[in-house]
Amino acid sequence: MNLARLAAERSASKGPIGVAVIGAGKFGSMFLSQAPTSPGFRINVIADLDVERARDACRQVGWDEDRIAACAFTEDGAEAIGRDDVEVVVEVTGNPAAGIRHALTAIDAGKHIVMVNVEADVLAGPALAARARSAGIVYSMAYGDQPALVAELVDWARATGFQVIAAGKGTKYLPDYHAVTPDGVWQHYGLDPARARAAGMNPQMFNSFLDGTKSSIEMAAIANATGLAVPSDGLLFPPCGVDDLPAILKPKTDGGVLEGKGMVEVVSSLNRDGSVVERDLRWGVYVVIEATNDYTASCFEQYGMRTDASGRFAALYRPYHLIGLELGVSVLSAALRGEPTGATTSFRGDAVAVAKRGLKAGERLDGEGGYTVWGKLWPAARSLAHEALPIGLAHGVTLNRDIAEGEAVRWSDVAIGDNQAVSLRREAEGMA
After folding, report:
1. Based on C-alpha coordinates, what's the Rg of the chain?
2. Is 207 domain-assigned?
3. I want to staple 99 with a disulfide (CB 3.0 to 4.6 A). Which of 117, 250, 278, 417 is the partner?
4. Going by C-beta distance under 8 Å and a sequence separation of 6 or more, which residues neighbour residue 221?
5. Residue 267's beta-bridge partner residues?
6. Does this model's pTM top 0.90?
7. Whether residue 264 is found in the same domain as residue 276
8. Along the 432 residues of the chain, how does pLDDT read in single tens digits?
9. Torsions phi, psi of 157, nearest 5?
10. In terms of residue numbers, what domain contains 412?
């Protein structure tokens, strides 16, 4: 609350907050579309590997030519970060190595960073967040994206005295999706491949949402931000509508599906036979809470909350998330309050590379959403004990042995040199 007022006061007293956007894809474009009508900040520079594409993105989202002319464009993220008129950096590339590089540059420059790049955050977030705290700057999740919205619900529950039983999001899921490759992705979205290509839609990116990788990455980010636990052998993806959240997302000992209390989990909008779940939560987020006593449970009933049969477990949910359209909340919170809209605090969850099919020595891994591996959520302790290769480093590296379908790839299974991303990942592992 009060962010709009604080933003207006800031604009009147010192002028708007200067923002650099790195990456003008879909998420970045959604943020750009809101900038002209959002109080308190101004996008002064946009960095993208294709500058003309970035300018076209601005036109497509409604910027007039005067606004485009007043904004600087560059291919160099470091150049954008280093500008004197930038206070907040919004990293939207989706590339883990690039995200780490830009975050470190922003930290060195004393600029707040909103890390839309959840791939980079899960790969090395504990190290990046610790460095940002030491530098006195804000390192933040992106409001509007599901991890930040789930973290907000968890914070609400804890601030009001409830124990969090489960928290997470919805998605479209069937077990067979783990093996889907970019060649077969569009049929699952009901899209014609030719039209998808004409619209510039990236099949590998969209496939990462389908094959379970993005869900694993996002749940790892939530666990690392909130301290919630991670399922021991990956997400269950139980079919579940909003009315059944408190009945299904509770511990097995209470008749639910969870290993225990305080877990992250993703619910599917599809039943295992492929039929649509009634009142599904495909686009939304949720938190399940437990009544603290009999009086609280009676209040759940009196105020119409949907509960399980015992009346003690209840859920609060948000049916939609608006991605980049809501991102301004993070920018304003960082610059005006000095607070993140969610941030990594520990290393609890990891997304590890698992073979989609039998792989042969000499094959080259192609990372998130590709043809070779998908990202599976594991507890960080299990990942480290197994020496599992994180999905964020499973791109462009060659296998030195055969890997069975469903097997997690290890660091020792690939030839990977020391680089900035590897170094930060190792630093993060040392903080577990």
Report:
1. 21
2. no
3. 117
4. 118, 121, 122, 125, 141, 147, 344, 349
5. 170
6. yes
7. yes
8. 899 999 999 999 999 999 999 999 989 999 999 999 999 999 999 999 999 999 999 999 999 999 999 999 999 999 999 999 999 999 999 999 999 999 999 999 999 999 999 999 999 999 999 999 999 999 999 999 999 999 999 999 999 999 999 999 999 999 999 999 999 999 999 888 888 887 667 899 999 999 999 999 999 999 999 999 999 999 999 999 999 999 999 999 999 999 999 999 999 999 999 999 999 999 999 999 999 999 999 999 999 999 999 999 999 999 999 999 999 999 999 999 999 999 999 999 999 999 999 999 999 999 999 999 999 999 999 999 999 999 999 999 999 999 999 999 999 999 998 899 999 999 999 988
9. -60, -45
10. 349-429
**Could you tell me the two tokens for 60?**
């497509």
Number of domains comprising the chain: 3
Q: Do 48 and 99 fall into the same domain?
A: yes
